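Usage

Read records sequentially. Each one opens with the input sequence:
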Amino acid sequence: MIIKGKQITGYLLLLLVIFSAIYSGKAKGKFIYPEIAKTEFRSDTFNIIDFGAIPGVENIKKDAINKAILKCTESGGGTVLIPEGIWHTGPIIMQNNINLHISINTLVIFSKDFNDYPLIKSSYEGNTAWRCQSPISGNNLENIAFTGIGIFDGSGDVWRPVKKEKMTQRQWSDLIKSGGILDERKRIWYPTEKALNGSLNSLTANSSKDNALQVKDFLRPVMVSLIECNTILIDGPTFQNSPAWCIHPLMCENITVQNMNVRNPWYAQNGDGIDFESCRNGIITDCTFDVGDDAVCIKSGKDEEGRQRGMPTENFIVQNIIVYHGHGGFTIGSEMSGGVRNILIQNCTFLGTDIGLRFKSTRGRGGVVEDIFISDIIMKDIPTNAISFNLFYGGTSPIPDSEEMEINQNVKNQPALPEANETTPSFKNIYMNNITCNGAEQAIFIQGLPEMYVKNIVFENVKINAEKGVFLSWVENIEFYNTSFETIESEGISKIHTKNLKFRNTMVNGKKVN
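and closes with the structure output:
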């Protein structure tokens, strides 16, 4: 076979394109942009004052907002207006075609009376569970919105346990004087005896309601629970002081979140910002988080129940996000048993966040995390890992207290499984480009499992200044292109149990890595 000149030129060009793509780290998948349905509402407005709401008065007309919502939905939908002022309310239950609009200079405070929150069968941390009614909830709804630039306060301080290690001596003393009860070791404060008993009780979803009622105060709700809803808009409000997770869309579609602020105390137990669980087709943009746990988190159910549900979180855009305190700036896991795929994260800033980009799971979860695209991330003063993959996650904080350190060690001491199966989590096909971090304890930490390596990770144009460099364990096909690390420790790249690592134009403390 004779190949003529033009054919040779064509083959050479093809080879050049392929080589260039591989060398530059571009030989990768492509994010598929979702079509996200948008909300639409009638022009009718229903003012909560017309339904008995009285500003500044507690324990009166707790149901005024719900009355306005019901009248609005019965009339075909529209806007329920919460005007300027301070309003006290019981739980708000959303309905179809409702735009709940909170005006500027407005604060909605949810009741601190546990009796206002009935016990219901719901979901918590990836499994069906008994929980108290959420301050804001909606089930099986179409076309709902939360708009305006007022503040919703979930009164979470009356719900949450508090660890002594996370308080100053003055704060701890004031907390004890406020009431409540301490655990046996005097290290954790609980708001009531029922809440303390709940921490000692092995309650499950199969437990009777009577048993759950005995520990009702322990069963903290998420602040905003949206289950199986379609076409959601959150635009403008601040959500703060949640009893547990703040915003939790579960099995929802067509979600738009923008211009939202979430605030929780840094010590808030389970004080996540927003957790998208088994959701599809969404965007979160131009939001700010300062929270007690993970800020923006992607989940899809836990263990067998999550695998049987089989609903991945997919087709999401996370962009223009600022995170201050939080356990993770952007997080996937640990409850990801239904899988996570086709996620785009771009133009985010993490300042003082415990971990910047956080991926976590453990044996027993199962699920596949794949096709994650991350670009244009800025981080500063990260107390632990700028980028972390931890498949030995034990349910503890990035900066563990004394009890959590023991949990972490017990998880790591588990023996290797003989082979991977449906309960083994898998993380693969993750691409990171244009990542900058000025100050971290460790630049990159990746710890897969002996039976399931973390695979196919590309780092391109990454520049990190940290005390420690890169740690790789149980990983395969990890590629570094145009990356540089400035570290205090001399060993910039530490690796054990690795396969097929590639370093192209990678520098550690000014020296090229081969």
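Summary fields computed downstream for this record:
- The chain has a mean pLDDT of 92.
- The CA atoms of residues 79 and 120 lie 28 Å apart.
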